[in-house]
């Protein structure tokens, strides 16, 4: 038996509770992992609260990421005792995820715990930090370089935003953080932001073309914010778009694309090919100071996940939330 947060559908509502589950219910996958830590991402909060239909089948164990130790394996690459990490691949959406003491998954979806990181530190980074690195790498593949000008990060106090600031500042960019919580300015500056602006400057409908302000941007927010970011990128600039905290819509015009040649780079962390995952995690392990990782994260027990999920969607949580599934 093992403990898991289980989501069940009752009268069209999602019911979430910690339950003791028989290991025999873990069916799909050639690797059984003893989970040490999982995390609470924005998507997990949507799944747990049932606010958006993230979960495809019920009952479901949520948790889009986890770090742990292999207990059983018939996969060629992994053996018992190996430390592993999983991000995405439908965990917590189409098959049981990481908010549990055990998970059975396909070994093709696992990567070795990056060298230099503990399981707890890997989950402090989690899908959010890994997505922030994918965004930085997408911008650099586009050709963005530190000398080009300011780089904007929206949703700055969130998990992706916090890590995007730290990663870009460490790489030499002048980072401008956009937030709705200006009281957190000292924290954002400590992470590496050179300037902090209020998100209200970006969140209302704006003109299709605006003053060129940003060489590049990481956008966690979508909607009018992303439209305004596109409209205020430098000629040839780029935005790595990964989130929808303001909304899934994109009320933009083609003007910035056809008149300034700007690029909208979509970033998905769930089904990214393995090589790109390994590269992102290797960069995280080599570039991010342990102190920065710890600074961004707080820790909760499995039983607290439901309450914190609600607060996360209210924008009351800052940085990353690690879940100790064994407490
Ligand atoms: P968090 O909840 O930690 O952070 C989201 C942040 O967005 C908040 O902290 C807040 O920052 C800002 N925000 C919240 N509501 C609004 C609003 N109405 N208008 C403008 N800003 C708002 O989430 P994550 O950092 O984990 O994820 C950020 C986004 O990226 C989410 O939409 C998530 O689904 C997405 N995501 C996508 C991935 C992918 O594969 N593409 C992977 C991981 C995340 P502040 O208080 O500073 O304003």
UniProtKB/TrEMBL annotation:
CDD domains: MDR_yhdh. It holds the Pfam family ADH_N. GO terms for molecular function: acryloyl-CoA reductase (NADPH) activity. Residues 9-323 form the Enoyl reductase (ER) domain. InterPro entries: Acrylyl-CoA_reductase_AcuI, ADH-like_C, ADH-like_N, ER, GroES-like_sf, NAD(P)-bd_dom_sf, Zn-ADH-like_protein. PANTHER family: ACRYLYL-COA REDUCTASE ACUI-RELATED, SHORT-CHAIN DEHYDROGENASE/REDUCTASE. This is Putative quinone oxidoreductase, YhdH/YhfP family. It comes from Caballeronia arationis.
